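Subject: design request, 86 residues
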């Protein structure tokens, strides 16, 4: 399935959200008119979409690694800090 304009905008935002003023959740609500929960649901679904990988491979791979670390931490019952080596 091809990425929509909104999908591309979400990936663009996720790549550089920290450069914007204010909390991320506020920017999500204002820019996309989505709750934070719905935004992350959409983003998570896109991580498995080959079109998203083609559009921004570095971002998608980084987000997949973070997702995989969180899943591993949940399964193993360990805090994220132990998985990241901090």
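Subject: RE: design request

Done. Sequence follows.
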């Amino acid at each position: 399935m091809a990425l929509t304009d909104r999908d591309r905008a979400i990936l663009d935002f996720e790549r550089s959200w920290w450069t914007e003023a204010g909390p991320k959740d506020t920017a999500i609500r204002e820019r996309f008119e989505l709750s934070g929960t719905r935004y992350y649901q959409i983003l998570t679904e896109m991580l498995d979409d080959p079109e998203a990988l083609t559009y921004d491979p570095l971002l998608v791979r980084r987000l997949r690694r973070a997702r995989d670390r969180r899943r591993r931490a949940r399964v193993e019952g360990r805090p994220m800090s132990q998985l990241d080596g901090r």
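The chain has one domain: 5-76.
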